[in-house]
Design a protein that fits this description.
single chain, 152 residues, alpha/beta, Nucleotidyltransferase, domain 5, five-stranded mixed β-sheet, 4 helices
Length: 152
Amino acid sequence: MSDKKFMRIMGLDIGSHTIGIAISDELGLTAQALKTLRRRSMDEDLRELLEIIAQFRIEKLVVGLPRNMDGTLGKQADGVLQWIKAAEKRINLPTLTWDERLSTVEASRVLLQADLSRKKRRKVIDKLAAVLILQGYLNQIRKHQNGSLPST
C-alpha cells in the first residue's frame, strides 16, 4: 500500500446562471455530484463554495474550460478564465482547468438515456457535467500514476 496522501478534489462547471459542483471521494477514484449552485453574485457564490471546501476539506479545484471544437478558446472560455482569476483571490487552493468539450453534450445524452423529463434534466445537467469534468481528470491522474501515457 502506498503512503500517498489522499485528498478530495472539487470539480466545477461554470455557467452564466449556475455552477455545477462535484467532489471526489477521499481516494480520488470517483466523482460524485454534489449540487447545482444558482449564481447570484461573485461574493455570494464564493462564500458558498468556501463553505463546501471547508466542509469536505477540498484541496484542489478542477474547473471545466469550454473550448471550441478546434481546441481554441472562445468567449465562454474567457468568462471562465476571468471567474478563475477572481476566485483565486479568495480561494487559496491549487486550481487547474480541464478541457470540458462535449461534457454538457455527454451529460445530456446520459440524462436522455435515463429517460428523464426535460424539467428534471435541467435541474441536474450542470452537476452531471461537473461530475464528467472531474471524473475525466481523476481518470487521467490514475493513468499517469499507473505509468500509462495519455492517448493522443
